[in-house]
């Protein structure tokens, strides 16, 4: 428990994950049960993380939540589902012990991200994973908790683990077999890197919850996808285990393309990719053509930002080409165009540039985040890390 609090409190961080087999579609909206399994890579928390402090006290008059500096309604059904489930499990566990009194006290929750919220950067995944992990620590809930995170936001269940993570679809109607499992730890493939190309940091036009509902209701292609995805999931898990980058990259790109084909097949159509996203896709294929094999893979969630997966040795070359074709804006307000893990100076790759016939554009990519595969949520023991003042209000 963090020491500076005059009440019982816990502070944790949780990572972002970017799927290579996407979750798209629910068979139960309230329990958040998916229509297909999915698989993601957990990213490094130095670059992308949610941080949450949770506290209980006799003196709190009601449950309250502050997100990124603003108080929000605690009545959101998803937050309520998470709180109820944590309290239910904690109650079950402590029924015979004395630690029960705090179960009847109110909670205060403060959470913030170190990256733009709702920029299509899986902020809800990191946020709900962090909330559930912190509450589980506070109330001493043990055992599997990814199924609780799932009830906050589906993709959040995968942020409960580090490395490469599968969300098992499950078959039971009550959702008890729909949770995340680690396929390989973050240490398994240390050369794996991610470059997040931030095309837009605006809130997305069609949220993923709404988008997938419309796809399920209207897309014919969706039925085909649901049958195909389990096979791709097994194949990519095997590629990860074998560290077979080529297979990993091919499945990742085809899977992302299929998701966006389903979006276009949705009625009315949903278009998450913009012209810059499409140019990024073309650039990646040009680079792979030059290198003679798939060395870079793109994937897009419900927005125009790209996540490129590649190996460490290829980062300087790919980044050089990204910067050549997507020149930084003159003044974009960012301290630097590329943030995150430092990249060594590269040569000019002039022959690559002359072999790639694409237009150059300036300012289309706002900035790039360079990160790697990272661990799951962490408890911060330093009291300075708490997001609470001593009276239980946010700092
Ligand atoms: C495109 O987890 O945000 O990022 O369960 O409705 O909260 P809800 O949806 P959410 O959907 C994420 C969709 C995706 C693909 C993925 O991360 O697998």
TrEMBL record:
InterPro entries noted in UniProt: GHMP_kinase_C_sf (IPR036554), Mev_decarb (IPR005935), Mev_diP_decarb (IPR029765), MVD-like_N (IPR053859), Mvd1_C (IPR041431), Ribosomal_Su5_D2-typ_SF (IPR020568), Ribsml_uS5_D2-typ_fold_subgr (IPR014721)
Catalytic activity reported: (R)-5-diphosphomevalonate + ATP = isopentenyl diphosphate + ADP + phosphate + CO2
The protein's name in its UniProt record: Diphosphomevalonate decarboxylase
Known function: Catalyzes the ATP dependent decarboxylation of (R)-5-diphosphomevalonate to form isopentenyl diphosphate (IPP). Functions in the mevalonate (MVA) pathway leading to isopentenyl diphosphate (IPP), a key precursor for the biosynthesis of isoprenoids and sterol synthesis.
E.C. no: 4.1.1.33
Keywords attached to this entry: ATP-binding, Cholesterol biosynthesis, Cholesterol metabolism, Lipid biosynthesis, Lipid metabolism, Lyase, Nucleotide-binding, Steroid biosynthesis, Steroid metabolism, Sterol biosynthesis, Sterol metabolism
Family under the similarity heading: Belongs to the diphosphomevalonate decarboxylase family.
Pathway annotation: Steroid biosynthesis; cholesterol biosynthesis
A Pfam family matched in the record: MVD-like_N
Gene Ontology CC terms, in alphabetical order: cytosol
Mvd1 C-terminal domain: residues covered: 194-380
GO biological process, one term: cholesterol biosynthetic process
Lineage of origin: Eukaryota, Metazoa, Spiralia, Lophotrochozoa, Mollusca
Domain Diphosphomevalonate decarboxylase-like N-terminal: 14-180
PANTHER family: DIPHOSPHOMEVALONATE DECARBOXYLASE
Source superkingdom: Eukaryota
Molecular-function annotations in GO: ATP binding; diphosphomevalonate decarboxylase activity
The species this protein was found in: Candidula unifasciata
Alphabetical list of SUPFAM superfamilies matching this protein: GHMP Kinase, C-terminal domain, Ribosomal protein S5 domain 2-like
């Amino acid at each position: 428990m963090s020491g500076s609090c005059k009440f019982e409190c816990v502070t944790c961080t949780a990572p972002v994950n970017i799927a290579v087999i996407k979750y798209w579609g629910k068979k139960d909206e309230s329990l958040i049960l998916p229509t297909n399994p999915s698989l993601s890579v957990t990213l490094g928390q130095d670059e992308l993380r949610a941080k949450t402090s949770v506290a209980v006290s006799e003196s709190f008059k009601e449950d309250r939540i502050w997100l990124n500096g603003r108080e929000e309604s605690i009545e959101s059904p998803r937050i309520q589902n998470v709180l109820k489930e944590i309290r239910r499990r904690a109650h079950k566990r402590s029924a015979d012990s004395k630690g029960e009194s705090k179960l009847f006290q109110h909670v205060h929750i403060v959470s913030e991200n170190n990256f733009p919220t709702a920029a299509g950067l899986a902020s809800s995944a990191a946020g709900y994973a962090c909330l559930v992990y912190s509450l589980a620590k506070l109330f001493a809930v043990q055992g599997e908790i990814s199924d609780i995170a799932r009830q906050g936001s589906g993709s959040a269940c995968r942020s409960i683990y580090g490395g490469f993570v599968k969300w098992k679809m499950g078959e039971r109607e009550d959702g008890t077999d729909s949770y995340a499992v680690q396929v390989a730890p973050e240490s398994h493939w240390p050369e794996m890197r991610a470059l997040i190309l931030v095309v837009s940091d605006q809130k997305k036009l069609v949220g993923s919850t709404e988008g997938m509902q419309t796809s399920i209701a209207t897309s014919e292609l969706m039925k085909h996808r649901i049958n195909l995805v389990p096979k791709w999931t097994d194949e990519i898990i095997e590629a990860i285990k074998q560290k077979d980058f080529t297979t990993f990259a091919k499945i990742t790109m085809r899977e992302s393309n299929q998701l966006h084909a389903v979006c276009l097949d949705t009625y009315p159509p949903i278009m998450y990719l913009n012209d810059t996203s499409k140019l990024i896709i073309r650039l990646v294929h040009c680079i792979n053509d030059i290198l003679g094999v798939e060395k870079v893979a793109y994937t897009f969630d419900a927005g125009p930002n790209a996540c490129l997966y590649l190996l460490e040795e290829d980062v300087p070359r790919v980044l050089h080409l990204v910067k050549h074709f997507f020149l930084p804006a003159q003044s974009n307000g960012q301290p630097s165009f590329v943030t995150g893990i430092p990249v060594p100076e590269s040569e000019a790759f002039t022959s690559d540039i002359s072999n790639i016939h694409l237009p150059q554009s300036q300012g289309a990519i706002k900035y790039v985040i360079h990160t790697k595969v990272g661990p799951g949520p962490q408890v911060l023991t330093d009291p300075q890390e708490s997001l609470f003042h001593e009276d239980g209000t946010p700092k």
